[in-house]
């Protein structure tokens, strides 16, 4: 991961005299979308490695990897979020992001595949825009909002909502 670029410092809001704690986020790419998760969920970022498939696994579960002697499930986040394109294509930039999700007392470890991992930057929640409204009903519970990274929109994922809400991996498994 690299240090924050000058353009990414635009994620920090101008202070109006009130001190507000900036949070750190990990930015990464899924297909054509730049996403961010709070670093408190990120355990580590790994180079892409072979993922062992699991028989009869739900479509979102790619397989399992070994992380320091522990089997960690790898979820296809693009499929889980119903993103189109680029599935199962790996490049030299492809990374596996190991995440901790859920309440502090029952945290679970999962991994996702990112097409590229950009950097860790600080952001101030005041610069975040609400999810867009466009006249149709859609479930935006998977995201905190939108920001900007250089000239691209940045989707702030609510990773707990993605995996611990109605879209929970266990629920997907039972439905498959």
From TrEMBL:
<dbReference type="InterPro" id="IPR036061">
    <property type="entry name" value="CheW-like_dom_sf"/>
</dbReference>
<dbReference type="Pfam" id="PF01584">
    <property type="entry name" value="CheW"/>
</dbReference>
<feature type="domain" description="CheW-like">
    <location>
        <begin position="22"/>
        <end position="168"/>
    </location>
</feature>
<dbReference type="InterPro" id="IPR002545">
    <property type="entry name" value="CheW-lke_dom"/>
</dbReference>
<dbReference type="InterPro" id="IPR039315">
    <property type="entry name" value="CheW"/>
</dbReference>
<protein>
    <submittedName>
        <fullName>Chemotaxis protein CheW</fullName>
    </submittedName>
</protein>
């Amino acid at each position: 991961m690299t240090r924050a670029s000058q353009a990414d410092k635009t994620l920090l809001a101008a202070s109006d005299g009130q001190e507000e704690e900036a949070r750190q986020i990990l930015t990464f790419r899924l297909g054509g979308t730049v996403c961010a998760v709070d670093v408190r969920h990120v355990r580590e970022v790994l180079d892409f490695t072979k993922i062992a498939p699991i028989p009869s696994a739900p479509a979102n579960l790619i397989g399992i990897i070994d992380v320091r002697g522990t089997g960690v499930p790898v979820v296809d986040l693009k499929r889980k979020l119903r993103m189109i394109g680029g599935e199962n294509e790996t490049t030299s930039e492809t990374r596996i992001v190991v995440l901790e999700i859920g309440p502090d007392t029952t945290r679970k470890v999962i991994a996702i595949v990112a097409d590229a991992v950009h950097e860790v930057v600080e952001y101030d929640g005041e610069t975040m825009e609400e999810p867009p409204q466009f006249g149709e009903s859609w479930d935006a519970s998977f995201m905190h909002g939108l920001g900007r990274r250089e000239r691209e929109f940045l989707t702030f994922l609510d990773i707990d909502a993605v995996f611990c809400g109605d879209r929970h991996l266990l629920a997907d498994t039972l439905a498959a």
